[in-house]
Records
---
Amino acid sequence: GDVILQACSHQQALKFESFHHMGKKGENGKSNNKRGRKGADYVIKVPIGTVVKRVHRDEETRERSFSDVIADLTEESQRFCAAKGGKGGQGNVSFKTKWQRRPEIRELGKDGESTELFLELKAIADVGLVGFPNAGKSSFLRRVSRARPKVG
């Protein structure tokens, strides 16, 4: 199956259990006129405001460089296909001929796409707090929120 990034308002940060994600493997072709079934898609929920860039690695130095933005997930439930899944295998009916009415062969499924992506979260502040030094900005912030800024 495909690996899909989906914007979700319930996500607040880019936190993953694993950094290697893979869609479910499709099935091979079967007998009795059956084709291989496509694997299930793997959906990764990311916060709204996630920017996706493709990573390119230099073969000799293994240094990373990033491409331009390939996706900007700015709306609820917006989706981006990060990697396409493989193709399901052909069943025995695909190999049927005039001389071979019931072939005993089938085709295996093809592997999907492999890619390395860089995810970046655009943080947008709702409020800005500006003032002179020693004007009590941190003290005010501590009183009105759960924030614990360092003072001193």
---
Amino acid sequence: ASSALHWLGFRLARFGLIFAPTEWEGRTGWRKPMLFGVSNAMVFGALAKGLAAQSVMPRATSAHAAAWSTAVEVAVITVQSWRGQPSHFNTSTRVDAALYAAKLTGVTILGVVCLATAAGCVLRCQHTSAPDRAALRCGLLLLSCAVL
């Protein structure tokens, strides 16, 4: 899927339909918001399975917290691309610093939800087969490490 998105983005940039060709790659390119969107969709797939399997955390609250925090993160990355500014480690102006702080807050909330979901699957994983429990535990623990 990633190579297909790269190909599509390159084609759109090449023909100038959406992006200027010079803005696709690099520190302030459009590739980053697209890939963050796709990777966050994959994170949500794992969290959905994990939240459904555990009984420690409230599912709806956790799902909403993860969704909104990630929406903020991807929105900040997209806004910074529109502005032609780097989205990571950019505190050069007050606006950049505020956007970076909002993005870090979103990442922190997502990390907490991932860790709590992993803990819930380790402590009380229900209604799943033994292989699914093992996959959820290992996968969510690795996801938690990656998010943090």
---
Amino acid sequence: HRPIFVFKAHHAGVNDLSVGSSPMSSTPMNFCIYICSVSDDQTISICTLYISVYSSQLCLKRSCLTVLQCASDSPLNSIKLVLDQSTFHQIYVSGHDEQISLFKLVTIEDGQPQIKFVSSSPLGTDGSCLAC
């Protein structure tokens, strides 16, 4: 079997993934899948897949890759996507610099998601696991 969709998110290997889905509108037949990743290249990458359901089959309407380079002063090793329909989708990342940073995923007028920095603070551990 061959994959139906492939994208290159980083120049180096991927250290962590976080995946979530969110409705695009009031109908459950249209939704987005967010695939978030971090790497030693200090980059946050988010591939957004816009999906529709037609006659019980999934249809990939479009996709876009959003990349924030130099998101940290050190290699990144953990990412966690928290979906929140009432405000904005939150992205937490940590790396070898023992900082946890909060970013928000916002959609601009053309529908392209953007990653915006919100805040950063010391993590106090090795930063290897945001889910711990």
